[in-house]
Each structure stands twice: as C-alpha cells, then as structure tokens.
C-alpha cells in the first residue's frame, strides 16, 4: 500500500512547534500533582530522559485538580518563576492537561517554553523512535487525536479573527485521521491474514506483553531460536535479528517476531511495545499492532518486574491487564527479574497477582530472563497451554504416504513406526492442522484401497 501524494500532507507537524529529535540536551522541569498522596516523580523523570530531556527541577503538589492550571495557581506561578530562573526548555506535567489548562499555562509561562503533558511526552518518545510502517501510522494517529480537541479549543478562542484559518486546520486534521485509520485498518487486515497463514502452517503464536522496562525483549532473546525465518512478517520482521534491550523506558517501539521451539513445537514469539500508565484508552487503542498481537495469540506472557515494590508492582500489573483486555489464549504471568528478589518478596508478588488478576491467569512463573533461570519451567507451561490435538493413522508405505509424512513434519510433530508394508503414524499439532491431516490421510488410504 503506497501513500498517494494527495494524502501525504502531514497536518500533525503543522500544529506543533517542537521537534523531539532536534536537540538532545534540552532541559525540563517536571511537575507532578496527586490528590491522595505526595506525588512520586520517578516515572515522569524516566519518561523525560527517554524523550531526551535533562530534568533540572521537580515541582510537586498534593492537591485536587485545579480547573484553570491543573496545579493550584500558586504552584503554577512558582513553576513560571522556576522556568525563568533555570532557563528550562519545557515543563513536563505528569498528568493529562485539558486543552483549557494547556492554553492557560501557555499564557502564564515564559514565551517559547514547551508545555507537555504525559500523553504528549509518550507520543514524542514514540515519534522519535518508531520505525515500522504500522508504528509510524499509529503514532501519527495518536498525535492527531491528541491535537484535534486542542486545535478546536484554539479555534473557539480565536473564532472572530481567525475562523477561516483554524477552521480549515480542524478539517485537515479530521480528514487525515480518516485516511490514517483506513491505512491502519488495511495493515491490521493483512496482519490478521498473516496470522491465519502462520497458523495453517502449524505455527503457534505466543505474545510477550507487559509494562515498559519489565524485561520483554530480554525474555524474547532468552526464548527465541538463534535464527529467524526468512521472509517472516515482512512489515514487522526483526531483520537484523535484534530486539534491543536497555534499561530505558520504551526501548522497543515496534513489534518484533522471532521463531522459537517449545516442547518440539514451532512457535512464533512476538515482542510487543511496552504499556504505560496514564494513557487514555483511545490512545492505547491506536497502538493496535501490540494489542492485536496479544489479543489474537494462542498464549500471552504478561511480563511483570518482580523487583518493583509491592505497590508499584500492583499498579503496573493492573494497568497492563486493563490495557490488554481479554486475550483469546491463556494468560501466563511471568514474574521477571526474580534474581533481584528473595523468596519472601516473590511470594508477596504472587499474592498481589492473585488479588489483582484472580482467575484470568492460568499460571504465575518466576523467571530471570537475564540469568536464564525459570525459563525451562516457563517453556513447559507454554507447551502445555498451547492448543493441541493428536491423531493416529495406519497407512500403506507408499510414495504418497511419504509425501504426507513430509507435509506432516512441516506442520506438527510426527512419530512414524514402520511394520512390513504399513506405517503407523502419530501426528500432533494445532487442532485445525490435525483436522487437515485427517482428510489428507483419508485420501492416501482410499488411494491404496483401489
Ligand atoms: N536483574 C535483571 N534485569 C533484567 C532482567 N530482565 C531484564 N532486565 C533488565 O531490565 C532492563 C529492561 O529490559 P528490556 O528487555 O529492554 O525490557 P522491555 O520490557 O523490553 O522494555 P521496553 O522495550 O522499554 O518496553 C534491561 O536493563 C535489562 O537488562 C532480569 O531477569 N533480571
Ligand atoms: Mg523491549
């Protein structure tokens, strides 16, 4: 699917003045507000650094939301002073700002200072890093959806003077949203078709999902076979064979598929984009390749960082389960980074899983993806939960049976016993593949009977 020149106009860039890739040594002040507790700025600071900002100050407030500035007026004024004193390039808010708050803050802070909320910050990270076609379109769609109400707000405020100009921007954004949605739908259809083809070929599909930095890519490396298949998933292929690992939020920005062998079965493992708290649902939905890879898998591994403190662990697990919805396959919880915690802490994390996830989860497995401990057990359990069927055939030892056996070896697991001029075959694979084997074998038998 090629972009036609007519749909090439990227209105999203026309509505923003900041380019996250432009200067790496940008400085920012982070602002966090929480109604119930003293805000923790760890995650917003890590997001800031992933987006290329050096954090020079943090302003926190325990308070309910203020309609005008989100934080209270006094805090907003303090922020304006600190920005002026430090010369910070941006104020990063660890909340979602309404379009009204955004424009009120613009009026209060020194000119040229970027005001960026949590959503926008995550989008900036993705915009800089997303490489694949679907990922780029998804980021664009998320940005357009984010910007639409803000441009509308501006249109309403400046209605008298600039109605024509801003009005056309709203129309541009809306039309681009429809175009991008259509393209993404087509890509999603193709991804669906590809998954169906892979299943017909006898592959089991396993997805690795979880909060950002939980260790998903490390686990992919641990479980994957050394070599990936040629021509696999051309749009998302891990062509250089690396899903990069780093102690940084949102290291992986495209889904990556690798081959693995589990219990003698041929599995396609898909590493997905990390999840994060505080992103609204329609925005999460824009990252549809991640969500559909998980929703449509035969088994999903939800990786959680067991070395997070109990409350952090609970929160990230809750967010992950929430955003993933109900995958069609079995859901296994991987308590990763088990090397960093003692048995007592692991037991406590298990309890949290029980409380938060309850009967949605098939099994909870402590693993260290880094050290490789617990992965044998994980493989066993994955092997057990994948859909499986077995059929037994007694066939004449003919050329046709040999072709059937060649097909069977490519699509599942085969055990063949030769006695006299007969072959006794036990064939195990996905149920639909076993059904096909039955009809193929029936023709072999019938031909012999003639
Ligand atoms: N100690 C320890 N560290 C781990 C383990 N697994 C992963 N890590 C570290 O955790 C950090 C994040 O690992 P990644 O595999 O990049 O995590 P991810 O979930 O793919 O992260 P994103 O792609 O950013 O969402 C890296 O520094 C890893 O080395 C583990 O079992 N034990
Ligand atoms: Mg990763």
TrEMBL record:
* GO MF annotation: an example: ribosome binding
For GTP, which residues are the binding ones?
210-217, 250-254, 271-274, 336-339, 368-370
Q: Does the keyword Transferase apply?
A: no
Q: Which NCBIfam families does the UniProt record give?
A: GTP_HflX (TIGR03156)
Kindly state which keywords UniProt assigns to this record, in alphabetical order: Coiled coil, GTP-binding, Magnesium, Metal-binding, Nucleotide-binding
Superkingdom is: Archaea
Q: Which PANTHER family match?
A: GTP-BINDING PROTEIN HFLX, GTPASE HFLX
Kindly give the SUPFAM superfamilies that the UniProt entry links to this protein.
P-loop containing nucleoside triphosphate hydrolases
Coiled-coil ranges from the UniProt annotation: 170-197
Which residue intervals make up region (Disordered)? 1-25
Q: Where does Mg(2+) bind?
A: 217, 252
Q: Which residues form the Hflx-type G domain?
A: 204-390
Q: Name the cofactor(s) required for activity, per the record.
A: Mg(2+)
InterPro entries hit by this protein? G_HFLX_dom, GTP-bd, GTPase_HflX, GTPase_HflX_N, GTPase_HflX_N_sf, P-loop_NTPase
Task: Give the protein name, as stated in the record.
Answer: GTP-binding protein HflX
Q: Does the keyword Heme apply?
A: no
Cellular component GO terms held in the UniProt record:
cytoplasm
Composition skew (Low complexity), residue ranges: 1-15
């Amino acid at each position: 699917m090629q972009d036609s020149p007519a749909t090439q106009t990227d209105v999203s860039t026309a509505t923003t003045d900041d380019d996250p890739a432009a200067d790496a040594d940008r400085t920012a002040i982070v602002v966090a507000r929480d109604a119930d507790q003293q805000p923790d700025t760890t995650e917003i600071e890590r997001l800031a650094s992933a987006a290329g900002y050096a954090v020079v100050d943090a302003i926190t407030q325990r308070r309910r939301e203020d309609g005008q500035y989100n934080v209270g007026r006094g805090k907003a004024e303090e922020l304006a002073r600190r920005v002026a004193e430090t010369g910070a390039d941006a104020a990063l808010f660890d909340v979602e700002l309404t379009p009204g708050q955004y424009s009120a803050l613009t009026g209060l802070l020194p000119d040229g200072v970027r005001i960026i909320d949590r959503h926008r910050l995550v989008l900036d990270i993705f915009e800089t890093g997303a490489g694949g076609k679907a990922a780029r379109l998804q980021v664009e769609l998320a940005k357009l959806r984010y910007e639409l109400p803000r441009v509308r707000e501006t249109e309403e405020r400046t209605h008298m003077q600039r109605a024509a100009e801003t009005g056309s921007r709203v129309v541009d954004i809306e039309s681009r949203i429809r175009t991008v949605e259509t393209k993404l739908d087509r890509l999603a259809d193709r991804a669906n078709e590809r998954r169906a083809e892979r299943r017909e070929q006898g592959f089991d599909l396993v997805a690795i999902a979880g909060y950002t930095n939980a260790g998903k890519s490390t686990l992919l490396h641990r479980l994957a076979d050394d070599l990936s298949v040629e021509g696999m998933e051309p749009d998302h292929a891990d062509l250089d064979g690396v899903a990069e690992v780093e102690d940084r939020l949102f290291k992986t920005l495209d889904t990556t598929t690798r081959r693995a062998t589990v219990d003698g079965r041929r599995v396609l493992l898909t590493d997905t984009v990390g999840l994060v708290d505080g992103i609204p649902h329609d925005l999460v939905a824009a990252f549809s390749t991640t969500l559909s890879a998980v929703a449509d898998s035969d088994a999903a591994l939800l990786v959680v960082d067991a070395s997070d403190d109990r409350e952090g662990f609970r929160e990230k697990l809750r967010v992950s389960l929430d955003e993933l919805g109900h995958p069609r396959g079995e859901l296994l919880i991987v308590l990763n980074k088990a090397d960093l915690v003692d048995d007592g802490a692991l037991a406590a994390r298990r309890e949290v899983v029980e409380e938060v996830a309850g009967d949605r989860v098939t099994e909870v497995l402590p693993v260290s993806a880094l050290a490789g401990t617990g992965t044998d057990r994980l493989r066993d359990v994955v092997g057990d939960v994948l859909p499986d069927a077995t059929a037994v055939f007694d066939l004449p030892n003919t050329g046709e049976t040999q072709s059937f056996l060649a097909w069977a070896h490519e699509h599942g697991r085969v055990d063949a016993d030769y006695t006299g001029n007969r072959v006794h075959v036990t064939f195990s694979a996905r149920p639909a593949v076993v059904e096909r084997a039955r009809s193929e074998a029936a023709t072999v038998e019938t031909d012999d009977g003639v």
